[in-house]
Specification:
about 260 residues; mainly beta; nine-stranded antiparallel sheet; seven-stranded antiparallel sheet; 2 helices; binds 2-acetamido-2-deoxy-beta-D-glucopyranose; carbohydrate binding
Length: about 260
């Protein structure tokens, strides 16, 4: 081994060691207004074109746009899907609490998703999904596929919760996720409603709990009108004869607390 090779090997080891620790949780609160900016150098970046979202003094409006042309509904699905906005955080972290203040649209077939997700291949997710077709409830979910899985565990770790207080998803509610190395707790308006423990996620001898990978924050609105299984779960398809051509979910603020 000559000096250059040794140097390359050592620097690879050092770089791997430096880059491997998970990003620390940094406390922050972003209240979206018309003067908030999104971008790769900011806390949040839009992954969809600028005409799919709008920053207003009411918050960050994520839009779902009606597809161009005629939409045909048949056998429980639409033949075309509307384009929805997605905004991610530019930071990721391992463990902490995230609270999203959100007003979600009450249009059946529209999903407002406020999630923690992994960039890349791991598919770890901690989700909150708000179904426009079920305005008095919200859903919690978690995915962490194991390499031994023979099929995705869709819905195995999901929960359905009441909005409470005779309210609906179109009012502002604070949805939260508290994530630690061995449990996830979902809550609404300051009340914890569900805890999923790592020990309760063992299926066929493999743990299905996201605890290895740092996660990003991701907020989106999407059209659940196809395929059929998604449309049935999402209470779709969207009836574009009655729905507005631009449907908005409003993210008022996002807060990250660290444990
Ligand atoms: C944005 O978040 C989604 C999850 O909703 C994830 O699949 C994707 O990799 C993220 N993209 C970037 C560039 O952060
Ligand atoms: C669990 O194991 C059984 C029997 O080997 C198999 O049929 C099933 O598909 C497995 N489930 C998952 C989610 O991998
Ligand atoms: C209902 O509202 C009251 C008063 O704001 C609050 O204390 C309580 O936690 C709320 N309940 C739920 C289930 O959100």
């Amino acid at each position: 081994m000559n000096f250059t090779t040794l140097f390359l090997v050592l620097s690879t080891v050092i770089t791997a060691t430096i880059s491997s620790p998970a990003p620390a949780c940094r406390p922050s609160k972003t209240t979206f207004t018309s003067s908030t900016t999104l971008g790769p150098a900011e806390a949040f970046v839009a992954l969809s074109p600028s005409d799919t979202y709008e920053l207003t003094d009411n918050g960050l409006e994520l839009h779902l746009q009606r597809p161009e042309g005629t939409v045909t509904t048949s056998k429980g699905v639409n033949d075309k899907l509307g384009d929805g906005a997605t905004v991610n955080s530019t930071f990721s972290f391992l463990y902490g609490k995230v609270t999203y203040e959100v007003e979600a649209p009450r249009v059946a077939g529209v999903i407002t998703a406020i999630i923690l997700a992994c960039e890349g291949d791991s598919h770890d997710e901690i989700d909150i999904e708000i179904l426009g077709g079920d305005p008095t409830h919200w859903q919690s979910n978690s995915y962490s596929p194991a390499s031994s899985d023979t099929q995705p565990l869709w819905g195995v770790f999901s929960g359905v919760h009441s909005i409470g207080n005779s309210s609906t998803i179109s009012r502002t509610h604070a949805y939260s996720v508290k994530w630690t190395a061995d449990s996830i707790t979902w809550g609404i308006d300051g009340n914890d409603v569900r805890t999923l423990k790592k020990a309760d996620t063992i299926v066929n001898g493999s743990t299905h709990f996201p605890f290895k990978n740092p996660l990003l924050l991701s907020m989106g609105i999407w059209d659940a009108s196809n395929p059929l299984g998604t449309s049935e779960w999402g209470k779709g398809p969207i009836n574009w004869k009655e729905a507005p051509s631009k449907i908005a979910a409003v993210i008022k603020s996002v807060e990250v607390e660290c444990s």
